[in-house]
Amino acid sequence: MTRKQFETLDLDNLEQNLQQAAELIAGRIRAIACDPVKQNISFEELAAIIPCDLPDEGHGPEAVIGEVARHIEPYSTRIGHPRFLAWITTSPGPAGTIGDMLCTGLNQAPLSFKGGPAATVLEEIVLGWFAGMFGMPEGWGGTIVSGGTMANLMGLTVARRVHAPQVHARGMQGLERPLVLYVSDQGHMSVTRSAVLLGIGEDNVRAVPSDSACRMIPHELEKAVQQDRRAGRLPFCVVAQAGSVTTGAVDPLPDIAAICRRENMWMHVDAAYGGAVMLADELRPLLAGIELADSVCVDPHKWFFVPLECGITLFRSREQQLETFRAKAAYLGAENPHDLKNTTFILSRANRALKVWFAFRSYGRLRIARIIRRNMELARQLYRLMCDHPEWEPLAPAPLSIVCGRYTPSAAVRGGWTEQQIDDLQLQMIEELERSGTALLTPAAVNGRAGVRVCIANHRTTPEDITLIFNTLTAIGTRIARPDEHETAGE
Amino acid sequence: MTRKQFETLDLDNLEQNLQQAAELIAGRIRAIACDPVKQNISFEELAAIIPCDLPDEGHGPEAVIGEVARHIEPYSTRIGHPRFLAWITTSPGPAGTIGDMLCTGLNQAPLSFKGGPAATVLEEIVLGWFAGMFGMPEGWGGTIVSGGTMANLMGLTVARRVHAPQVHARGMQGLERPLVLYVSDQGHMSVTRSAVLLGIGEDNVRAVPSDSACRMIPHELEKAVQQDRRAGRLPFCVVAQAGSVTTGAVDPLPDIAAICRRENMWMHVDAAYGGAVMLADELRPLLAGIELADSVCVDPHKWFFVPLECGITLFRSREQQLETFRAKAAYLGAENPHDLKNTTFILSRANRALKVWFAFRSYGRLRIARIIRRNMELARQLYRLMCDHPEWEPLAPAPLSIVCGRYTPSAAVRGGWTEQQIDDLQLQMIEELERSGTALLTPAAVNGRAGVRVCIANHRTTPEDITLIFNTLTAIGTRIARPDEHETAGE
């Protein structure tokens, strides 16, 4: 039997099928700025539309690409839309998308150098770029993971290994003094989730109070550490936020570093979002002190405009990293000092470095930096609009590109609304804006007060988009607060 | 300023760039069966070839695609080559590759239903297919993760939560009795790695002895559990292998299930590789008993021929799963009962379901099942070749598609070689085969004896490939064992 007659999973019309997929992607990206940002459809309605049977006989890729075009693409949120400003999810630059296509096309398995020679080198190159950006000293280490949660987990795992090496063999059960971890009350939920996973427990994560600008108060950190020491616990790690998820706050990194040094604690910086400012020379001082960290989390798939999934952990010491993750097994074959299996928790992994390398080399550092800078200017624009409007108030400073504001319509003041009613209004405004297809935002809670959160990590957002969102939100809020007046006006 | 004049990361020649990438991928796949399987190049040599600067000004995607074609693609191991039979890494079916391209092209963020309505539905559809295949009862849950290590971790995390709920708040330090986990001495390293991560510790993972067919011995499991109970420890979980990484052994699942029920332990089945047989009706009895598991790990990116990365954890109880992973935060917005953020550890995630859905619908269940069946026949072919050859011996039965064998050349017997010398020979044979570009295999250690491991999870491997590998290995081994005779013959 020749290879040709042999049944494989190869496709007769591979070139055409790839071309069809490429056209679908191009069409999607070309129309990404069209409204609506997101279709209004429920899970149940959509489940009735998307074909759900696993057929015995295949339909062939042409037919299935057709299904994607008809039933999947339209119900895929336009995350690259200029007014998608939710979570910290970014519009990917299309060069990153192409890099990611090549990643799956080459399908490397760089757990071992042999499984992806070029992929292994690319990971070292890309990590080198980030280590340089973040001022890591010689002997640094790093790993590319799926995103911020995994990147934070990797940092905390090495922290635990270094500060409680006996845990590896004996488990957390073998510890006499419970480990305690500190993060500001603005910390990302992945920090607590990681602490729970690692067996540290929610009760041993301290939410250190933050100031009015949502930054951790160093004195409060010191107090908490002393308290825990007196109680016989073992303070071992502080997670500093460099771009908090709610407001983009940057903790006082040099102060925290000094406390960590004095108290012999690991300093992990969660710069998943904020780390992108390190790409722009004049913005770097915003994160001054980050070079003192023992580990840093930073996500290319956030404000670097690389498509999902892509996160990075940098380590001050590659030796500590390898000590934590070294993987040995006969079936893995002979060791190569560059094997990526020794650098992280998972074994099989895609060549995620490729899309970062591809995007950065295609666009160049300065072009991406210009977009980051402009996103910050757009945030200042929105912040000023809120300051200048009598019914709006920013809920916190906006040091990076996230703005949280609260709208209190004068009609509500006249009507004697409670704070709770005004809280509810913020959510209604966001939901109505979303239903209109104009923009996708998320809510925020700052110091117990609800607001609208606008996260501008989007290369397509213009000043006009910001004005449109602000005016539309204001109009919606006004109308909700004066339903009768509005109805009258409409008649 | 119009949108057009505004600097974004959009590409002027998007269609052409996508087309160039598609052509590169098509060319790669069309030539995937060409030798060598892998280039012989060192990390240092390759690092000198791949462009490593982060340029201030971008080179544009055309130029960078050219760099990929010249410097990356040639040094990317041909994992789809018919004689790539290393680890458990499979040749992806090209329809899966197209599905993965569409995944990155649509760039969904289905942590929340809003971030990917279709992606959320697709994840439920695909998980439903697997839950059905594995006989999960009503109320099942599941999650799509990056691969087997994460899938095992997710299973063990829920196991810990259910059997030691206090750990969530108080940490493992709060436990009076240390948790103990059981896996056969053939268990995948990700099980111990997960136990270390979870704070259980290596010392609390029992390697239960296996029989001559590499299957866990139920009686030994019972003995170990009793011993731990007597010592005041808390046996909480057994990980059964359904397709062990070294030989493809399937543990006696019904016996293990009975012990777990009797001893009130969680039963997790690691079917990362072996789970694929559930796709073929007549092969399902091989994993009889798997339907009794509390959680199952199974990897679409292994023997289902889907490109990296894609793993799945199935849970008997979605309620227990949600109880473990529920994620709440103001900035995440209003809850939808289908939000994927509540089903797994990470938050941001790609739409991995799409490539599975795309590949399965394109090929149909039966076509993939035929390939799986043929891979098993190829394994039997190789096993018989080893049995029939006086110098070869299989090191273990080959119940699925992995064959481990040891070559003892008669010249070595005549020359009085030690076992260690024969061990070393196996590795030399594999390395020389690899250097020749003919095939990529990995070594194995079975009951302390080294061998050659051939993992046939490849839709392109033919009977002729198996014969070629067997004959080439034999020739290499013979020549190494008789260097003088060979040199004489060659003169």
Automatic annotation (TrEMBL), chains A, B:
It is an enzyme of class 4 (lyase). InterPro entries: Aromatic_deC (IPR010977), PyrdxlP-dep_de-COase (IPR002129), PyrdxlP-dep_Trfase (IPR015424), PyrdxlP-dep_Trfase_major (IPR015421), PyrdxlP-dep_Trfase_small (IPR015422). SUPFAM superfamilies: PLP-dependent transferases (SSF53383). GO terms for biological process: amino acid metabolic process; carboxylic acid metabolic process. It comes from the Bacteria. Residues 4-31 form a coiled coil. Keywords: Coiled coil, Decarboxylase, Lyase, Pyridoxal phosphate. Belongs to the group II decarboxylase family. This is Aromatic-L-amino-acid decarboxylase. It comes from Oleidesulfovibrio alaskensis (strain ATCC BAA-1058 / DSM 17464 / G20).
